[in-house]
Amino acid sequence: MPDKQRTLLIVEDDPALQKQMRWAFDSCETVVADDRETAIAQLRRHEPAVVTMDLGLPPAPDDVTEGFALLREMLALAPDTKVIVLTGQHDRENAVKAVGLGAYDFFAKPFEPELLALTIERAFRMHDLQAENARLAALSASPLAGLLTRDPGMLKICRTIEKVAAASVTVALLGESGTGKEVLARGLHALSPRCGERFVAINCAAIPDTLLESELFGYEKGAFTGAVKQTLGKIETAHKGTLFLDEIGDLPMPLQAKLLRFLQERVIERIGGREEIPVDVRIVCATHRDLKEQIRAGLFREDLYYRLAEIVVDIPPLRDREGDAALLAHAFVQRFARENARGSMTLTDDALAAIEAHPWPGNVRELENCLKRAVIMADGNRITADDLGLQSVEEDLERLNLRQVRDEAERKAVLRVLARTNNNIARAAEILGVSRPSLYDLMNRFGLKKENGS
Within 10 A of 300 (CB to CB), how many other CB atoms are there? Predict the structure, then answer.
């Protein structure tokens, strides 16, 4: 039977039958209604997952018009609600019509409570399954769904991005080149209330210092030689949306001062102009540099750092994301094989071992380029370490044996705790959460010498 928390709405105008049904289905939270108006009110108030309803309702209990009107209205208001229609013994035509309109099932009166209870339970389960499918579909449609990872640290970062997306704060994404900073920035924008507006990106390291100011702030006609028309800068172009300042650590000092003024005043002046133009934009920045080290070296303004880094997200390099290199490699192989019409391609064991052993200084971007080249250049449908251009490594499969991994972890834990407690067996056993005999057994198994200790 359903859990107590799940709500069942019973629409029945016969008080005796209504009471009987409440008693029969008391394992779930029951609410009742005896006419269309009350049923709709209860539907809005309690949002029941399942409804049982008699087709014959007041003001004409012998007619099904009111029942069908209620069914249509309920399914329009709550299409996921499972409605079980109760009909007369020989009223199969209306029962079939009700199912055609969207009812989950039908039952003929008089009914066996046990059989109806089974149908109600199935309806609850179907509702739960559909709700879970909808939740998973929404999750897979998330802007961050394309960021493939199983690493707990990266998953935590994704949750952080989801949390801060709706907040009106500047976000600094710090990490090595190729770790996915722009992917996260775009996800942040897509999850924010500004998602319907523009996402504008500019790489502060890719544009010469002499041109960067005009790229950011725009210029008026005649402001300098070649300024033949008024041109909006990236900040103004991103009005109402998100401005992504990539490689902010390479921003020249004079421009740092001008950017700081914008962040404080939220107005800009185009080059050659005197008009203050208000701009509403969210700033997300990224850099591979250590900004605090830049501050100490006098290369980055501390006051600008605190304006830009209201929320700081440190993105780990690929080499520190356990299992992600192989996970991404499989995905890249499938994608590039499809794009290049190479059919089904797989990675050999030596290729996967080489991928896991490589430090990937260029992170995900380097891995992606490596796999793309390998898919194109491989002779067959199997990609080897040679195809990847990586050194083949002798993989010790013993280290992947769960029993050995567990034994090694236990041995290290026992050694560490014994050292911390100065070989006090009673204290060590307490910290490890085992009995003293169990600790002695572990020490014997790992060949650890028993020192004097209480």
Answer: 23
